[in-house]
Amino acid sequence: MNKGLRVTILGSGTCVPSLERSSCSVLMETGKVSMLFDIGPGTMHRLLEAGSRVTGIDFLFISHFHPDHTGELASFLFANKSPNPQARKKKLTIAGGPGFADFYENLARTWPHWLDLGQNSVITEIDPETGKQVSDNDEGFNISFAPAPHQPESIAFRVQAGNGQSVVYTGDTDFCREIVELAKNADILICECALPDNIKVEGHMTPALAGKTATEARAGCLVLTHFYPECEKADIEGQCRKTYSGPIYLARDLMSFDLSGNKAGI
Predict the structure, then answer these.
(1) How far apart are CA 238 and CA 199, in angstroms?
(2) What pLDDT digit, counting tens, does each position of 42-83 carry?
(3) CATH code at position 200
(4) Cα angle for residues 157, 162, 163 (degrees, 5° grid)
(5) Looking at the domain assignment, is residue 260 inside a domain?
(6) Which of 107, 116, 151, 155 has a 20 to 30 Å separation from 64 between CA atoms?
(7) Domain count, the chain
(8) Strand order of the sheet with strand 188-192?
(9) CB atoms within 10 A of CB 107
(10) Whole-number Å distance between alpha carbons of 214 and 226
(11) Domain housing 115
């Protein structure tokens, strides 16, 4: 069985509508397990384009509660209840940071019955300060966490596959030591890069800060994502090169990376 990781960027955009970029979402697959990180508007459409089904997702991790990261959660759960031949037959674990249980309950009260997957779902909160991990010995992967300076519930994730290779997804974040440590020697760092260096806003990375994170973490390659329209007019790679000399990829929807071999391959 393939114990490596396959990573697909489902959404590389933001809350700003775009025909080219859906809102934030990343699919990671290892062995028989499929993990979705964030579920912004457009995720399910991109998931189908990537050859996956909503009922095939085993874990859904929410980095924080902003609509461009959670906007399709209700529709996703509703789709999983659909009475068709592709209906969900395995358990779905949905996890987010502090306050996620209340966030989910508010959705469930808005759409009574329609979102409840019964015994096929587990809703859980993650406290990144505890250092606890999600792991599966049979599939040989584990997921660790770090707090991210964006919202009180914000979390960054590190997925380590059975072959020892790893991918970090920051979600929305500003520069911080916790994420540098989480990303130490990661094969791929998927880092938000909301705006160019000259339009820095609190709680978000710029290209130079993303590059600094990758350099200090000694990441194997850097994937920049979460682009606002201002990024399309700027030399994002050039700005990132001020602080990082390794491989850089500017994310686009459906870009994928295969870590099943000895190194990341696009």
Answers:
(1) 15
(2) 999 999 999 999 999 999 999 999 999 999 999 999 999 876
(3) 3.60.15.10
(4) 105
(5) no
(6) 116
(7) 1
(8) 134-136, 141-147, 155-160, 166-169, 188-192, 221-225, 248-250
(9) 15
(10) 16
(11) 6-255
Q: Which helix (H) or strand (E) holds 133?
A: none
On whether residue 266 sits in a domain, the answer given is: no
Residue 250 in any domain: the answer is: yes
Whole-model pTM: value is: 0.94
**So what's the pLDDT on residue 263?**
45
Distance CA 56, CA 119 (A): 16
For 245-266, what is each residue's pLDDT tens digit? Answer: 999 999 999 999 998 654 455 5
Cα 219 from Cα 189, distance rounded (Å): 6
SS3 253: coil
Read off the tokens for 35.
């993990």
pLDDT on residue 262: 43
| Angle at alpha carbon of residue 56, lines to 50 and 62, rounded to 5° | 85
Tokens of 185: 């020697």
Domain membership of residue 1 (yes or no) is no
**Residue 37's closest CA among 197, 176, 225?**
225
Q: Is 70 exceeded by the pLDDT of residue 136?
A: no
| Burial (0-12, 13-18, 19+ Cβ within 10 Å), 263 | exposed
Separation of alpha carbons 29 and 18, rounded Å = 26
Supply the mean pLDDT for the chain: 91
